[in-house]
């Protein structure tokens, strides 16, 4: 039987590249996004090969009740979750002392709380089986402060702390936990920026790194994956 990977926000960027990578490596996929049409197009694209299953559910991962509903949908499939990638995130530029009111709450709810609540909802079965791998898509902004990063950096610093704590709590249960910390990657977050595409990393490279970390033996865990553009940060 094919293993199951749960990957949030799987229709674009790093999420989509990781969905495609794991699917091509023999995993069935459960994913979500806010746009139902994008989810159906993704499912049709992957399932056109006739191999594997893709389960989709429209979800706004910044809303606690929708995270809970997505977790219940995953559980309703009655299948063990082998890989969980908490990939949902939003970037709103701005400095702490000048950004719009509510930016911090929006990015904490999206970037941190989504991972916290979904991991809590799905981890009990992993603990019972003493098996599983949890990834979080953070950012180099989670350990390097920079101007105009504001609440985004705060949320990503918190996400890295969450993942470090989870690693320590779950290691004796056989569950691997990995922080993915990419620099500038060519995704929708960078639309409109007047820089050549080759200045950015490819989402497919991030997906390859995630899959490579998972494919190691279960007695080895990559705790942090830090990736940067070859020419340095943007």
Commentary on this structure:
This protein is α/β, with parallel strands linked by helices and about 230 residues long. It has one domain (about 5-225): NAD(P)-binding Rossmann-like Domain (Rossmann fold, 3-Layer(aba) Sandwich). The chain is about 40% helix and about 15% strand. The protein contains six helices and seven strands; from the N terminus they run E-H-E-H-E-H-E-H-E-H-E-H-E. The protein has helices spanning about 15-25, 35-45, 65-75, 105-130, 150-170, 205-215, and strands spanning about 5-10, 25-35, 55-60, 85, 130-135, 175-180, 225. The protein has a seven-stranded parallel beta sheet with strand order 3-2-1-4-5-6-7, with helices on both faces. Helix 1 packs across helix 6, helix 3 packs parallel to helix 4 and helix 4 (about 105-130) runs parallel beside helix 5. The longest helix has 27 residues, at about 105-130. The model has no long low-confidence stretch (mean pLDDT about 95).
Give the key terms:
seven-stranded parallel β-sheet; 7 strands; 6 helices; Rossmann fold; single chain; alpha/beta; 234 residues
Condensed summary:
This protein has one domain (3-227): Rossmann fold (3-Layer(aba) Sandwich), CATH 3.40.50. It has a seven-stranded parallel sheet with strand order 3-2-1-4-5-6-7, with helices on both faces. By secondary structure, the chain is α/β, with parallel strands linked by helices.
Which SSEs are present, and which pair or pack?
Elements: E1 3-8, H1 13-24, E2 27-33, H2 36-47, E3 54-58, H3 64-76, E4 83-86, H4 103-129, E5 132-137, H5 150-170, E6 175-182, H6 203-215, E7 224-227
Parallel strand pairs: 1-2, 1-4, 2-3, 4-5, 5-6, 6-7
